[in-house]
Amino acid sequence: MEKVNITEKLSLIHDHWNPRIAGELNGQHVRLVKFQGEFIWHKHDHEDEMFFVLDGEFKMELRDQTILVKKNEFLIVPRGIEHRPVAEYEVSVMLFEPASTLNTGNIVNERTRENPDKI
Amino acid sequence: MEKVNITEKLSLIHDHWNPRIAGELNGQHVRLVKFQGEFIWHKHDHEDEMFFVLDGEFKMELRDQTILVKKNEFLIVPRGIEHRPVAEYEVSVMLFEPASTLNTGNIVNERTRENPDKI
Fold first, then answer.
1. Which of A9, A76, A91 is the best mutation test for B, with the most CBs of B within 10 A?
2. What are phi and psi of A7, to 5 degrees?
3. Which of residues A113 and B83 earns the better pLDDT score?
4. A2 three-state secondary structure
5. Quick check: pTM over 0.90?
């Protein structure tokens, strides 16, 4: 059993939209990711997804509203809801979601990361 | 869908060892709790438990070692492992764990919180 230092792990991430697995428990992943720019519209039919902002801020675009999520805030996007994260500047996010969750949900394209690396 | 501000939620907590539910997803809870002093030895037979330190630090005592967990660090205690959190000074912690998780695990006593409040 080893503790995980988030600051250290984030310092190892030099790309965007590429989640890494920082922990696993109860069939869920704790993932760390950096965002910048616009992602794609997608949804997860079977997984709720939590976005916890560790540093910076981003906008979660939904079809009927946009929610600005800042450092020390989290947002849970329920399964089935289309969403698109957009970050003007780089943001560091902790994701909490089932291990089965594909980053691009129902869309598979060049931004899909099927088997995230551990960090 | 509403974002949750951790700093605001923590400011509402004025007691110790009494986890509140700040979010729920995929059958899991995001709980917020403040610790100070010594908890009891216990284990969870069916649940892994994640302790993410938001402010301060605490020691997780295990039967074979003690792990100091500081701000921006997390520790996952696997199911079945006896543990006891101890904090010299007040510490603020985010817990990720199945909704079924009882704070005192296999022990039921006056420190048990069977149905945590939402916050």
1. A76
2. -60, -45
3. B83
4. coil
5. yes
